[in-house]
Amino acid sequence: MKVPERARIVIIGGGICGASVAYHLTERGITDVVVLEQGDLISGTTSHAPGLVGQLRSSVTLTKMLMYSVSLYRTLEVDGTPGYFEVGGVRLASSKERLQEIKQQSVFAEKVGLEAHLITPSEALNLFPLMDATGLEGALYLPSDGSATAPVLARALINRSQARGVTFCPNTRVQSLRVVNGQIKGVDTINGAIETETLVMAVGIWSPLVAAMTGIAVPLTPMQHQYAATNSLPELAGKTLPNLRDPDKLIYMRQRDDVLVIGGYERDPRVFSAQSIPDNANPTVQQFDADHFEPLRRAAAERVPVLKTAGFSQQVNGLESFTADGEFLIGPSHQVRGLWAACGFCAHGVSGSGGVGKVLADWIVDGKPEMDVSAMALDRFADQPLDTKTIEQKACQIYSTYYDLCQPVH
Fold first, then answer.
1. What is the pLDDT of residues 266-319, one digit of tens each?
2. What is the average per-residue pLDDT within 4-21?
3. 0.70 exceeded by the pTM?
4. By percentage, how much of the chain surpasses pLDDT 90?
């Protein structure tokens, strides 16, 4: 389809984040918006996200963003099918040090208004009866955490946006961005050119390549993140289990119908060069490496014994964008006026997109963000640009220490 000749705002990226930005712009009365996607809508990372939605993070700003996401996701459905299931989340403490951490997290959660309860190992076992509670010191239970079907959430946001006048253009690859005197002026695509002075990059792992069209660098890199879904488990019949995280074992898991989805954050992660992203139907999915996944599988089986003999119906090696410091990349560029970013979610893409869409839309309309997002500023490395190797090294460090003990930032 030929693209419109002009738009007030152009968004590149037709996944859940781009859809969220478009939807929240319409909430502010801006409907002259065009969303461009190089392939089918809701392809890329959104199509294969594991879908765990946790809200408790180390900063007030990020936690409140994710809390907003949940409040939005509760309202989203497509033809009667919900996109969010509020099954709760249990974060295990398999060490005394982790127990102290979750106690501090409980206090932090109360301060930001997020419901959280310290529970005993036996209470955790009641919530997740497939678990072996050996070695547990306690757990933190968050009732409003849950599981998302990211494509349903994205489709619901797209449907709402389209109903209000937003134009979505799938199969429309961006060829170049026009910058005149430091100001965005337009986008050239395979289906025509669009004049615009406001451009939002919501393109995940492609962000460095798109940003380079304007002459700026974006400090993120694709990381390979593997997870697997079991075959049907009779033990799940009639049960609804909360999401389970055991950070001391580096693993997470969630129920999806009658299977368990398991994944985690290995100590020896693997980066994937943004310059090597293949040109195929879904380049965000790579070949699954069973040997590399095996330590996580064993750790998951220690905690949930049924996994010792469970086969897998699905194995995914998906690419996730990680930044050099583990923080999102959102907001305007001060190097190129009119250029905005919504990317670098470090595996929080689904849980973060609702809140990011709102913050960014309000920021574009009002000229300032509604909360302190300085730690997520797009230009925070502008004075000391990082080379590709350094970005990859720092992203690997962030990934490999993802579940390390940390203190909430009050």
1. 999 999 987 777 777 788 999 999 999 999 999 999 999 999 999 999 999 999
2. 98
3. yes
4. 93
Tally Cβ neighbours within 10 Å of residue 13.
28
Q: What is the mean pLDDT of the chain?
A: 95
Residue 3 lies in a domain: no
Which pair of tokens denotes residue 161? Answer: 């946006």
Domain count, the chain: 1
Task: Specify whether the CB–CB gap between 379 and 334 falls below 8 A.
Answer: yes
Within a domain: residue 40? yes
Alpha-carbon distance 67 to 144, whole Å?
9
CB-CB contact of 281 with 309 (8 Å): no
- Looking at residue 50, its pLDDT comes to 94
For residue 382, count CB atoms less than 10 angstroms from its CB and return exposed for 0-12, middle for 13-18, buried for 19 or more. middle
Contacts of 383 (CB under 8 A, 6+ apart): none
Residue 410's pLDDT is 37
Rg (CA), the chain: 21
Q: Is there a domain that residue 186 lies in? A: yes
Distance of alpha carbon 139 from alpha carbon 98, whole angstroms:
9
Q: Are strands 89-93 and 243-246 parallel, antiparallel or unpaired?
A: parallel
By residue range, what is the domain housing residue 365? Answer: 9-50+150-219+325-384
For 189-238, write each residue's pLDDT tens digit: 999 999 999 999 999 999 999 999 999 999 999 999 999 999 999 999 99
